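Table S2 (continued). Query chain:
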Amino acid sequence: MHVAANAWMITRVILESSGEIDTFCEGAAKAGERTKIYFRTEDDLAPPFKLRIRSPGGVVIVERVLRELPLGPLYGIPSVEFLTPDTGEYKIEIRQIQGATQDQDSYRPPPQSNWLAPESVPSKSVPPPNAAPSGAALLFVS
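Corresponding output:
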């Protein structure tokens, strides 16, 4: 039983995953090899998604827009595959891309007179209460 627990800890490569979109890795991630990642969420999110992966040195090595959320080999949507040249922690960010913001205050043109009533003064736009679902993860490559 103790050996099985240690084997599980060795193959675990996602150190931390946060947000509405969870990140998973297929198998162990090794330096100099191709790594496959996929994502899961409890909500049914509409595409597109923006994916950004940073190397341990902070350089963006993958940045692309995905038309579908890769759900892994069991669901038929292929995983995202990329090369991990160095060992260390890779930062993975995924975010749903949404169109124009909604529920913003609108601008009403001022009346013809020089005096502006307080309700006709343009207000600042307010971000929507439902921000785009996103996720972040750390991938450890040995």
